Amino acid sequence: MYISTFGSDDEEGKAFPVTYSDTLKEIIAKTKETGRTKMIIDISGNAGGSANRLYNMFRTFFPDKLPNEALRFRRHPAAETMVEAFRVLNDTEATEFPSLALRAVAGPNLEGKFETPEELLGEQTLSQVKVSSAYNLDYNLISKKADPIAGFGEAAKVQNAEFPIAAENMVIMGNGHCHSSCAEFVHFMTTNARIKTVAFGGQPKAGPMQIIGGVRGALVVPFEQISALTGEALDIINDPQAKEVRREKIAMDAVPIPFQDLPIRLLGGSVNYESVFPTPDAQVPLQFETKNADCRLFYTAENIMDPTTTWKAAKEVAWGGAKCVEGSTQNEAQQPKTQQPETQQPKKQQARGLMPRIRGSFR
């Protein structure tokens, strides 16, 4: 099964999210009909996409497991001001905003909601940086019929067929090109369901390799959206009807200047707004953690000419007794290594930038 993308936000509101979900169900139904007992999930080149789709895919594979994560944003006067302003939003309105709207999020493990801005903002400092409390997106709010998360919200009654393949008979493979939502999907699959991973490529030397080589953060916010959020916050602050807003908590000088009022014209840009932590108690976000694959393989000339042969190679190391690159399995990577003299590559392979596959063992 090849997952090239989780779809962009540009496709929200169209048929794509439902088609994406239905296609996944069809693949699972076909897997069951044909009696397949093993699955390789290829996420090579997946640059991420919609959070709803990654949550829905995980829930489709494992309907009894919660795609639990611990999100945090950086706490500063501008964020504190916006959280205070957006406290007036109801559940429906809050879903149009990122987690600065406290009703759009829930506590870790979806245990309870934040009742006040102070609860969401928290008082924690990690690595000398002020951060918010840990939270999850409220799946019950963001799950819609047009963009479902199985088992939540408007898709709460969706009963996915039992996935016919056990977790120990699944493998995720990739080439390091995996970002954002793709990284979160791999995180859920490897931590919540203990799926093994195989990474292809990397530098031409023995040793481990991470299957995720891209950004491991959460929501990306374009400059235009930041400007829109600023405008919404200012409208609420200046609205005399918004009596819930405690204006003594507002730091007007910290609120960003609207996009159109900047002294220079910016053509665009974005920031990674949220950090993802492995658990609510973790001190370091996933972005700065090393997560080596369980096994690594070098690309061969055959793999380059026919990418489907990488699936065969992943199958062989997972279930056929083939070996991984030396020092790339988890057990080997934890052991001190005796430095080996380098051997010269055959000239033909050197010209192609390839290396022969070095044998090791698969965990």
From TrEMBL:
Positions of region (Disordered): 326-363
GO term, biological process aspect, one: proteolysis
Entry-linked Pfam families: Peptidase_S41
Listed Gene3D superfamilies: 2-enoyl-CoA Hydratase, Chain A, domain 1 (3.90.226.10)
Molecular function GO terms recorded: serine-type peptidase activity
InterPro entries: ClpP/crotonase-like_dom_sf, S41A_metabolite_peptidase, Tail-specific_protease
Transmembrane segments: none
Residue stretches of biased makeup (Low complexity): 332-348
Domain Tail specific protease: 19-66
Matching PANTHER family: PEPTIDASE S41 FAMILY PROTEIN, RHODANESE DOMAIN-CONTAINING PROTEIN
Protein name: Tail specific protease domain-containing protein
Record organism: Ophiocordyceps australis
